[in-house]
Amino acid sequence: ELIHEGVTGHLVPVEDAVALAGALARLLSDPEARLAIGARARAEAEAKWSWAARARELEELALRAIEERR
Fold first, then answer.
1. Using one digit for the tens of pLDDT, what is the confidence trace for 20-64?
2. Using an 8 Å Cβ cutoff, are 8 and 35 in contact?
């Protein structure tokens, strides 16, 4: 999953404006939690989806392919 409830964001049902408003209200009313969630989400995204992470995965894939051909 991309979003972990309460850890890297909030999940709400599709087309549920009341749930969305509630999630936004929680974030707006708790700056510490909002900043922590944002920081965790950014760290996770950078670890999984940054150019550096993608390059590492590609390098590992290439090295495995080379090893398999030996």
1. 999 999 999 999 999 999 999 999 999 888 999 899 999 999 999
2. no
User: pTM of the entire structure?
Assistant: 0.71
Residue 37 makes CB contacts below 8 A (sequence gap 6+) with: 6, 7, 8, 9, 10, 27
How many whole angstroms separate alpha carbon 34 and alpha carbon 20? 15
Residue type present at position 33: A
Tokens of residue 17, six digits: 């404006």
Amino acid at site 61 = L
Q: Which residues pair with 9 in a beta bridge?
A: 5
| Closest CA relative to residue 26, chosen from 15, 16, 42, 37 | 37
In this structure, which amino acid lies at residue 46? E
